[in-house]
Amino acid sequence: MGIDLVAGGKSKRTKRTAPKSDDIYLKLLVKLYRFLVRRTGSKFNAVILKRLFMSKVNKPPLSLSRLVRYMDGKEGKIAVVVGTVTDDLRVYEVPCLKVTALRFTERARARIEKAGGECLTFDQLALRAPLGQNTEWKIPGESINVENETGECNKVLLRGPKNAREAVKHLARLLVCHTATPNLMYGQRDGNLRGPEEEGTAERVERNLTCERKLGLTHWTSV
């Protein structure tokens, strides 16, 4: 025999059901893909909708060099990136690519179009492939294979370098020796410290670093 929970019970699972951004164009995309998920039941559209909800940190940019490497041997398919596609000067030759993304930098768009490729928006993709046909999922995630409606496994989810941000380089991790040296003025506003206070702050930070070195928790290296 069950019991009646107050308010039907409370779920501790929290996940986004809408984007936090006030961008009206992003909200229009969410409205479009909500409709496609509801009317088509496509896994491709469901994943795109979930990625549109994510924060900026969880939508890292994808460089042109990675995009070229991932699309090697997949000619004729459309690469889909829920994020920004940026240029990479280390790539000298850009093949003909069809790419769908939330945003392209100016140079990345110019190089793709110069090579005979296309830079598509998500509303254009919805018209061309409402079920995600003939697409290659270059969405900033670990490698995941997703079967389409015919049972063929032709879609791959890939996440860009999420931890390549400058902020992550300063996060101390136990027993890992690649943490960058923190700024001595971290957490202090410029010009707030004068004279002995500034010297005391620097000495305190240096003392803390010395203690951590002796304990062997982290090995600090120069930036």
TrEMBL record:
Record keyword Ribosomal protein present: yes
Residue span(s) of domain Large ribosomal subunit protein uL15/eL18: 2-135
One Gene Ontology MF term: mRNA binding
GO biological process: one example: translation
Domain of life: Eukaryota
Keyword annotations: Ribonucleoprotein, Ribosomal protein
GO CC, one annotated term: ribonucleoprotein complex
InterPro entries documented for this protein: Ribosomal_eL18, Ribosomal_uL15/eL18, Ribosomal_uL15/eL18_sf
Family: Belongs to the eukaryotic ribosomal protein eL18 family.
Protein name as it appears in the record: 60S ribosomal protein L18-2
Organism name: Vitis vinifera
